[in-house]
Known about the structure:
By secondary structure, the chain is mainly alpha-helical. It has helices at 16-30, 32-49, 51-54, 92-128, 130-144, 148-159, 163-172, 176-189, 193-200, 205-213, 218-241, 253-260, 269-296. The chain has 13 helices and no strands.
Amino acid sequence: MTTASRTPAPPRDRAAAPAHRSAALRTLLRNRLAVVALAFLALVVVCALLAPLIAPTDPNAQDLLARLRPPAWQDGGSGAHLLGTDQLGRDLLSRVIYGTRVSLLVGAGAALLAGVIGTVTGLVSGYFGGWPDRVLMRLADVQLAFPAILLALAIVGFLGSGLWYVILVLGVTGWVSYARVVRSEVLSLRSRDFITEARAIGVGHTAIMRRHLLPNVMAPLATIGTLHVAAAVVAEASLSYLGLGVPKETVTWGSMLADGQLYLGTSWWVAVFPGVALMLTSLAVNITGDALRDVADPKAYRR
């Protein structure tokens, strides 16, 4: 019995990959706002990793004789406390620096967990269709019927406060957007010739989803992931503001905002500086997400 000869795949152009990366880098560098956002995020990451070396003092060290001291550039300020002190005499600069640790860990952890759950769900739902698609999408609709922050409040209130509980809750409640976007992309890809040919030569379903479908949905996933990081950072701050996030002894921007709200009229710096740090970090992550979307889009290289 004779077997049909299969045409060998054309060899890869080894110069294509460097050219692709070079075009992506040029696209990114043309966006000056994205470069500034990336530089700011790099600074935030450095602060989170090297907080014990950068922070002037222990963030929880109290000095009641120096309570509510203004920033160094105002009358009554001190060079020992560049951003001033809070109601317990704790150094605000040290607390803002240490707060980056929790914010980045929660944002990245929640986005990664939600991305894994949502991507797997979207791939299975879009590729197989039928009853798996109906069941998974109805589960997504049920979750969308509940406001995310209220659902997170209910789960955290039931499980209790804790850093890993917050990451788990924000990850589990954030998978729907990933799943719906991945599903829509897979629905448009599963009837393409390269998928049909892969099935014809006996490639398994798991291999098709991993090798052929997943790489084609990475561009929207990059955008959703970065936006979810920003949303998770804000959600963690909201939970900590309400006293349902991480324990009080852990420094977070949300708990700093809660402590400073009573002093806005007299000691504005207690709440303003953590609020500015939260706002700038979320803004930088969103700008970076838009830039990554443009870089991941091959059409951007032809502009």
